[in-house]
Amino acid sequence: MTCMDDSTRSRYDVVVVGGGHNGLTAAAYAARAGRSVLLLERADHVGGAAVSARPFAGVDARLSRYSYLVSLLPRRIVEELGLPITLKRRRWASYTPVGDGGLLVDTQDDAATRASFRRLTGSDADFEAWGRFYATTAEVARLLAPTLTEPLLPRATVRDLVVGGAGEAAWRTLFEEPLGEVLRATFADDVVRGVAATDGLIGTFADVDEPALRQNRCFLYHVIGNGTGDWDVPVGGMGAVSGALHDAAVAAGARIVTSAIVTAVDPGPSGVEVTWSDAAGRTRGVTAGHVLAGCAPAELERLLGVDAPASGPEGAQLKVNMLLTRLPRLRDGVDPVAAFSGTLHVNESLTQLQAAHAQAAAGRIPDLPPSEIYCHTLTDRTILGPSLAPTEAQTITLFGLHMPARLFRADPDGAREQALRATLASLNTVLAEPIEDFLALDADGAPCLEARTPVDLEGDVGLPGGHIFHRDLSWPFAESDDDAGRWGVETSHPRVLLAGAGARRGGGVSGIPGRAAAMAVLAG
């Protein structure tokens, strides 16, 4: 998935800056419409954060190194681009260990889920409230998902859509009232509240009661994907998704150049001058009819020569990849396959989430870091090589919450080690066997474990502040009359458009901003 630059062409209809999954999506759509397309990627491969890699020396396991599940990628994009990808549904939505018990949400067995709620909470009340709450989010998802691949609707129109289909309370609870207030009014149990709250905190460093409602916006995007909100496993790993998009772009005629470090974007009345440094260190340049920026908005502003603000985006997660010789047992004896197949919530009651946020906001790594875990190989073992596939080996992805970049700036290596120790210790509080006892060893005898902080992500894949959404998420509708009917990708320069996660309706592995940027060009 690499290409050296041997082109002598001096002008392209479209130049895409950044070869993440959104940049590839934009390139594929523009090229399929007959536009000449050049995509420039700074790394020696495409895919951005949606890649598979073998991070452990001599170990044939292809992990989804950064992003790892798919929800927001519309079926419309898969069908329009003819992407040969397979997404598998997970039977168990989640398991949350609590003392010597836990809460297991089984999507195929309501009776078992009800019984689990009853054992945890002492009654059926929260189970019934859970059903009502997620029936509401499902209806909102059904209504909103089709709008994500169309021009922006005005806020009032979206409100009417939601109220007309799901009721006034649905609009109020998802779009107007802080998530924390909603969850306290909906559920009596602190653990149940926390399980629901986590969807508002993935990659978003926010208090659940924050008046600005960043947590609500994050929650909304986590429950509306494809009209269902289901988070699916990409067969072959996340690299299979980016690989399919790469192939679609190339097949349509897009030219992809890797090891191309873009240094300037200079808009003019008749085109945009794009300057980059190639693999040999030579300065190259080309004129574009339009530039589609798959990079973060902060990076685009730097390329445009705009002075950076005093404070920029801030990511807030610790990503840990592991390869285990087998799954550890849990304290309450639940089947590890059920516990690890969905999302395993670790120390994520609402009280625990709020305590961790307060400690991180005060500049401390949380004493008991909350985290979410899932095991790709319980659903898809194709990512394991022939020597591992027949064994009990399993890949583990841990996503730690409330780990803002500010905690790692002064001492990146030391703080990473401290955060990792605290996170593994937190995980071990819910296991019957320490996770360290089951780490596989690589060819050098080192444990198969990799931890990446926001500062690491900033360096690895160019995410400003390590922010996985490029910046805070925005509502999926036009918030001003001027934006209604547009695509949510526009900048102050008519020929320069956002095509990455920082666009409106960006975030997650979706391809939505990439497609929107291409549609904006094609409609012009």
Q: Helicity, in percent?
A: 25-40%
Largest sheet: 7 strands, mixed
What overall form do the CA principal axes indicate?
A: globular
User: Could you say what the CATH topology of the domain at 11-50 and 74-81 and 235-312 and 467-523 is called?
Assistant: FAD/NAD(P)-binding domain
What's the end-to-end separation, in Å?
31 Å
The number of helical segments is 16
Counted beta strands: 18
Q: How would you characterize the overall build of this protein?
A:
Helix content is 33%, strand content 17%. It is globular. The protein contains 16 helices and 18 strands. It has 524 residues and is of the alpha/beta class. Mean pLDDT is 96; it is low at 1-6. α5 crosses α6 (168-176). It starts with 10 loop residues before the first strand and ends with a helix. Among the domains are: 11-50 and 74-81 and 235-312 and 467-523, 3-Layer(bba) Sandwich (FAD/NAD(P)-binding domain); 130-222, no CATH class. The strands form 4 sheets. Strands 1, 2, 9, 10, 11, 12 and 18 form a 7-stranded mixed beta sheet that branches. Strands 7-6-14-15-16-13-17 form a 7-stranded mixed beta sheet, sandwiched between helices. A two-stranded antiparallel ribbon has the order 3-4. β11 (272-277) and β12 form a beta hairpin.
